[in-house]
Amino acid sequence: MLPRPKKHFGQHFLTDRHYLARIVGAIDPRPDDVMVEIGPGTGLLTRQLVEVLHHLDVVEIDHTLAASLRQDFPAARVTVHEADALEFDFGQLGAPLRVAGNLPYNVSTPILFRMAALAPRLADCTFLLQKEVVDRMVAAPGTPEYGRLSVMLQYHFAMSSMLRVPAGAFTPPPKVESAVVRMHPLGADRITARDEDRFAAVVAAAFSQRRKTLRNATRALVEQSAFVATGIDPGRRGETLSVREFIALADSNG
Question: Per the domain annotation, does 1 fall within a domain?
Answer without folding.
Answer: no
